[in-house]
Amino acid sequence: MRRCVRWRVVLVAWAATVATTGAASPAAAAPTSTWTVIESANFRLCALADRPTLDALAATCEATREQLCSKWLGKGRHAPWDVKCYVVLHPTAQSYLHEVGQGQMTAGSSLIEFGTDRLVTRRIDLRADHPQGYADALAHELTHVVVAQRFIERQIPRWADEGMAVMADAPAKQSLHLADLTQARSQGQMFRLVELVNLEQYPSPDRQATFYGQSTSLVRFLVERGGPQRFVDFVNQATAEGYETALRRTYGIETLGQLERQWLVELDRHSAVGRADAASPSGTHDRSVALKSN
Ligand SMILES: [Zn+2]
User: Fold this and answer.
1) Rounded to an integer, what distance in angstroms lies between the CA atom of residue 172 and that of residue 136?
2) Which H or E run contains 245?
3) Looking at 200-290, which runs of residues are DSSP E strands?
4) Those residues with Cβ within 8 angstroms of residue 94's Cβ, 6 or more apart along the chain or in another chain
5) How much distance in Å is there from the Cα of 158 to the middle of ligand 1?
6) Distance between CA atoms of 191 and 217, rounded to whole angstroms?
7) Which of 12, 33, 95, 213 can pair with 27 through a Cys bridge, CB separation 3.0 to 4.6 Å?
8) Is the dihedral of CA 278, 283, 288, 292 positive or negative?
9) How far is ligand 1, taken at its centre, from the CA of residue 166, in Å?
10) 3-class secondary structure for 49-60?
């Protein structure tokens, strides 16, 4: 998805309803339909759906969580979450927007609330009726939830958080983000790296496409240098000791300026490869306007 704007927002009403009644009607549920709530090891799921459908969704959530934990946090058995992640599958955009509040075109949204030394709320809202489905949105939002476990003391920088989450999106959608970056670069609209990595909030709507494209590209560049877990360690160290110390220790890069120059060289190389592919008969064109609305 292209917006994750609900970080660190207190939201307790729905959670309290489920905890006490075992059933909930988030927003505009059809009055004659039944909300089913089930639990798995790490999730509590709620949907206007039958039990087999929810069981299948729970299995997908557990498997995706395991895969994302192994990718970003390291292999091995991961301790069950002490606070389960609520997953609400909304039947309509109206229901979804009533709960999420914004993000009309998105298929999913995550909510993570931090206590003093632990996560106290994990929640993902999904739109069952979204034209592109919600499978990608689930993986994207679950990346935010999984990675948050490593950033309880200090908030993960926005660029790193979104760049990692976009890596769970479908390749075609990642290509759209990178196309946004190409366009921003051609128009001289890119963020300077020092500006991007120090953004404390999401940028204004007119710069969000650039933000997602640039964040995606930068995270990919660093992950390709040392792997996903090393990247998470780098970001964690950067939030504690500053980017330049973390860059030097993790990647042998002395300054943000040096990182920017190396990243731009890589961007030029990919652009050249892309032009060569486009000129060849076997060049692929996976752009889809419809996907971009997700
Ligand atoms: Zn996101």
Assistant:
1) 11
2) helix 243-251
3) none
4) 27, 28
5) 9
6) 12
7) 95
8) negative
9) 7
10) CCHHHHHHHHHH
Q: Ligand 1 centre from 30 Cα, in Å?
A: 29
Q: Which domains does the chain have, with CATH numbers?
A: 13-153 (3.40.30), 159-292 (no CATH)
Q: Which three-class secondary structure state does DSSP give residue 155?
A: coil
Per-residue pLDDT of the chain (294 residues; tens, 9 = 90+): 333 434 433 332 233 233 333 333 344 344 346 889 999 999 999 999 889 999 999 999 999 999 999 999 997 767 899 999 999 999 999 999 999 987 777 899 999 999 988 999 999 999 999 988 899 999 999 999 999 999 998 889 999 999 999 999 999 999 999 999 999 999 999 999 999 999 999 999 999 999 999 999 999 999 999 999 999 999 999 999 999 999 999 999 999 999 999 999 999 987 766 555 544 433 322 222 233 333
* H or E element in which residue 23 lies: none
- Cα(107) to centroid of ligand 1, in Å? 11
Backbone angles phi, psi at 288, to 5 degrees: -140, 115
Amino acid, res. 49: A
